[in-house]
Amino acid sequence: MTLKNTAVRWGPISQLLHWAVVLLIAAIAIIGLTMTDMSNGPSKIKIYALHKSLGLTLLSLVVLRLLWRLYAGTPRPVAGTPHWQERIASLTHWALYALMFALPISGWVFNSSSGYPLQYFGWFNLPRIAERSEDLSRLSHDIHEYGFWLLLALVLAHAGAAFYHHLFQNDDTLTRMLPGRRKAQPVLAASPSPSPSQVPEHPDAD
């Protein structure tokens, strides 16, 4: 079994990074939506610190995931997928990447421009990336807040599309991001008339 992605499915490294990012986003979202209603005190400070540390972890994982994607390549679209769906899926993926960069960075800018300290899980301090500024603090806060809702909408659309393909199209759009050996359907070939050797007989083959 190869660790890299193949023509018909995502490899284990991509799967691990994908689901780790999904769990992180879910945790960050739950904390972010509940922490503002907490009463001021040590517990609220700790929850805010945890939110920031998880956000920085997300930023690191997204960088790692993007680098791995560029190195390991991506599977071809599943056969029969209309071109407009491929295009929308590609745009959605890159929009998700942009937002997963924008949210942690805007949070870091907001933290810096508001004059708050920033520690990573209490292990070490991180530098400010912006000077104190009320205007910048307000702008970065708005980007962080509205960007979150946009990210949530895209994540739900992305998940909904995957389940639609799985339940109604009966293809491997969803299952090839899941662990385990599954017999994948043919993928779109690189040329109009592929030879039999271009489509792997086993989906997990190198």
What would your notes on this structure say?
It contains 4 helices and 2 strands, in the order H-H-H-E-E-H. With about 210 residues, it is mostly helical. Helices cover about 60% and strands about 0% of the residues. A hairpin with a 3-residue loop joins strand 1 and strand 2. The relative contact order is 0.15. It has a single domain (about 10-75, about 90-180), classed as Transmembrane di-heme cytochromes, Chain C (Fumarate Reductase Cytochrome B subunit, Up-down Bundle).
Short description:
This protein has 206 residues and is mainly alpha-helical.
The number of helical runs is: 4
Radius of gyration: 20 Å
| CATH class descriptor name | Mainly Alpha
Widest β-sheet, arrangement of strands: 1-2
Keywords:
electron transport; cell membrane; 4 helices; 2 strands; disordered C terminus; mainly alpha; electron transfer activity; membrane; two-stranded antiparallel ribbon; 206 residues; Fumarate Reductase Cytochrome B subunit; single chain; heme
